[in-house]
Write a sequence for this structure.
C-alpha cells in the first residue's frame, strides 16, 4: 500500500546531514528492531541534505505544503546539532512526542549545563558531540608548526592560509564551534581570536563534513571539526598522518537531536524510530566496533551515546574509550545565549570573512608587521556589542531588513579593513 504521494505505508522518510555509513547502519538496525517490536519491517527512505541551512529550507517548504492542505513528505529530522531543532520548534515545524520512562532511563536531562532534550518533548538528544581541531601532521612538520592544542593556536600567523572553515549559516556544528570560542574567552577576546582564524582561512566550505577530507588531502593543514569526523578521519588515514584534539576545557559537549515533523501521517512510526534511537539497542550501535554483536555491520560510527549505562560495555568492544560523562564540565555551554545570537554570528562571519575576504587577509598581514597600536585595536574591535547582538537577532528574521543590515556590516568591515591597509603605508 502507498499514500497519496506514492510512499510505502511501512516506510518513513528521514532528512539528515549524516553520511552514508551512518544512514546504512541505522536503517539495518531499525528494520531488525521493528521486526522484533511490532512484527513487521519498517524501512527508511533517506532524504540527505548538505548542511543544516539546506535542511531548514526543505523543512520550511514541507510546512508550507502542510498548511496549504497537502501531505507532509518528511517524517523525521535527525542530526545537525541542537540549534536547527530549536529553530524548528520556534517555527512550528516539529511536533512534541512522549517516550516511555524506561527508554529515557539513564539519560540525564542536562549535562554540563546543556539540555539533552527539549522540556516539552519536541526534540531528544541521540548522541553527544564535542568539537576539536583536526590537523595534517605531515603538513605541520614540513612547515615547522607544532600541533595545535587550543583554539587560540589557530589564530597564530603560523597558520596563515592553512585553515579550512565551514560556513556557520550552512553548518550548525560550525556555528556552535565559533560560539564556544566566544563563550570560553568572552565576546571581545573571542572575536579577536575568530577574526584571526577567519583571516588564516585558505578556504570556506558549506558542510563541516568536508573539513576532515580537506585536511587529509593536504589542501589545508588544520580545521575545526565535530569529534566524530575527527575520529573517523584519524581511523581512515592513520595516526601517523592525521591528528585530532579536543581543546582541554575549551569545548562543550552538546546533543545531536532527533525531531518528528508536524503533520506527518506516520507519527506513530516516526515516534518508534526515536524510541529505537534511545533504546539500549540504538545507543550501543554508536559505540560498538563494527562486527561486534549488536553493533554496526560494516562501519564503526564513532559517536558518544547519551545513555550512561551504555558506557559500561567492555573496553575491547568499543571504538571510543572516553566516558563523556566524566569529561564534561570544561565549558558550561549556554544554549540560550547561543540561540539568541545565532544569525548575528553567521552574518558577521559572512560580511567579514567572505564578502571582505581579501581585505581581511590584507589587513591581517599589516597587523602581523605592526602588532601593537591603534591599527591592531581596530582590527580586533568587535563589530557590535554582545548586548546589541541579542537585540539584532530578531530583526534578522525579516528578509528585507536582513539584507539592509548585512549591507551595513559589509560596509563597516570594508571601511575598517581598508583603513588599516591605507594607514599602514603612512
Amino acid at each position: 500500500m502507498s499514500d497519496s504521494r506514492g510512499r510505502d505505508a511501512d516506510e518513513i522518510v528521514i532528512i539528515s546531514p549524516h553520511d552514508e555509513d551512518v544512514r546504512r547502519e541505522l536503517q539495518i538496525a531499525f528494520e531488525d528492531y521493528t521486526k522484533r517490536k511490532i512484527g513487521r519491517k519498517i524501512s527508511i527512505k533517506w532524504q540527505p541534505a548538505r548542511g543544516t541551512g539546506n535542511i531548514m529550507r526543505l523543512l520550511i517548504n514541507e510546512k508550507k505544503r502542510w498548511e496549504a492542505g497537502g501531505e507532509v513528505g518528511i517524517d523525521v529530522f535527525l542530526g545537525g546539532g541542537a540549534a536547527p531543532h530549536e529553530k524548528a520548534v520556534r517555527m512550528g515545524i516539529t511536533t512534541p512526542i512522549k517516550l516511555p520512562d524506561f527508554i529515557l532511563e539513564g539519560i540525564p536531562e542536562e549535562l554540563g549545563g546543556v539540555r539533552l532534550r527539549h522540556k516539552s518533548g519536541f526534540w531528544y538528544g541521540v548522541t553527544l558531540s564535542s568539537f576539536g581541531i583536526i590537523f595534517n601532521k605531515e603538513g605541520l612538520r614540513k612547515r615547522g608548526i607544532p600541533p595545535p592544542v587550543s583554539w587560540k593556536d589557530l589564530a597564530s600567523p603560523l597558520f596563515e592560509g592553512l585553515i579550512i572553515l565551514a560556513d556557520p549559516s550552512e553548518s550548525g556544528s560550525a556555528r556552535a564551534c565559533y560560539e564556544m570560542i566566544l563563550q570560553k574567552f568572552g565576546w571581545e577576546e573571542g572575536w579577536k581570536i575568530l577574526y584571526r582564524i577567519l583571516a588564516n582561512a585558505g578556504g570556506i566550505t558549506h558542510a563541516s563534513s568536508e573539513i576532515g577530507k580537506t585536511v587529509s588531502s593536504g589542501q589545508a593543514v588544520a580545521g575545526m571539526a565535530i569529534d566524530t569526523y575527527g575520529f573517523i578521519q584519524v581511523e581512515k588515514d592513520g595516526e601517523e598522518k592525521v591528528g585530532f584534539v579536543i581543546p582541554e576545557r575549551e569545548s562543550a559537549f552538546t546533543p545531536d537531536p532527533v525531531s518528528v515533523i508536524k503533520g506527518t501521517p506516520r507519527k506513530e512510526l516516526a515516534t518508534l524510530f526515536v524510541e529505537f534511537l534511545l533504546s539500549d539497542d540504538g545507543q550501543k550501535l554508536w559505540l560498538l566496533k563494527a562486527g561486534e554483536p549488536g553493533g554496526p555491520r560494516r562501519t564503526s560510527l564513532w559517536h558518544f551515546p547519551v545513555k550512561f549505562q551504555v558506557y559500561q560495555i567492555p573496553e575491547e568492544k568499543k571504538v571510543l574509550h572516553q566516558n563523556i560523562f566524566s569529561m564534561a564540565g570544561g565549558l558550561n555551554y549556554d544554549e540560550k545565549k547561543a540561540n539568541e545570537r545565532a544569525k548575528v554570528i553567521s552574518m558577521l562571519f559572512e560580511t567579514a570573512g567572505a564578502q571582505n575576504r581579501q581585505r581581511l587577509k590584507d589587513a591581517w598581514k599589516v597587523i602581523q608587521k605592526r602588532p601593537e597600536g591603534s591599527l591592531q585595536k581596530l582590527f580586533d574591535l568587535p563589530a557590535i556589542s554582545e548586548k546589541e547582538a541579542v537585540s539584532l537577532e530578531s530583526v534578522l528574521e525579516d528578509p528585507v531588513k536582513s539584507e539592509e543590515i548585512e549591507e551595513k556590516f559589509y560596509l563597516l568591515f570594508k571601511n575598517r579593513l581598508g583603513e588599516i591597509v591605507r594607514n599602514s603605508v603612512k
In short: The chain has 18 helices and 14 strands. The first strand starts at residue 11 and ends at 16.
